[in-house]
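Researcher: Please predict.
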Amino acid sequence: MKGRKGAFGYPEAFGWSFLALAGLLLSAHGLAALRPGFTEDLVSLGTLSAAVYLLFAALLLGVYGPQTLPEPRSSAPPDSSTRRLRGDGRLLQVLGLRGTHPLLALLGLGLGVIAQIPADTVRQLVELWTPMSEEETLKRAALLTSETQLQAVMMVVVAACLVPVAEEIFFRGALFGALTRSGRRGVGAAV
């Protein structure tokens, strides 16, 4: 199923990714000019990031989204009470928010733990070649400290939940979906 404005290819995917990043950077700089302490608050930065990615996902779906929502994957039609409470899943499918097997979450967690080893090695090499100044180290530490328990909880919710979900909706839902609807194979779209 093609989008409303024609085929969506790799140049368009790159362009939308670039625009989303530029929008995030410009809005962060603009808010930092209005409120100087903005860049020192992880909750504010994360919320801005999520808002920008969700905005660009909505814009991308508005331009390249399907003209009609796809049929739900279930063969049995949901009854009216289910539809009213959960919707029929079509919008969630377009956004890339689909159910999965619970063991895949454990597999992902395991792979994330295993990937930490090479990631730490790369980080150590980068710090060895280009060490951070003491000022930069203190700035990063201040970004991750909280004065209240509520602020600590908000930091975890924003950094571990809100931002990743918004990025997944933009990249896996909107971009990946637009590429696959334009006839790109799943592997090529993922790359």
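Model: Helices lie at 10-34, 42-64, 80-86, 90-94, 102-129, 134-143, 149-181, 186-190.
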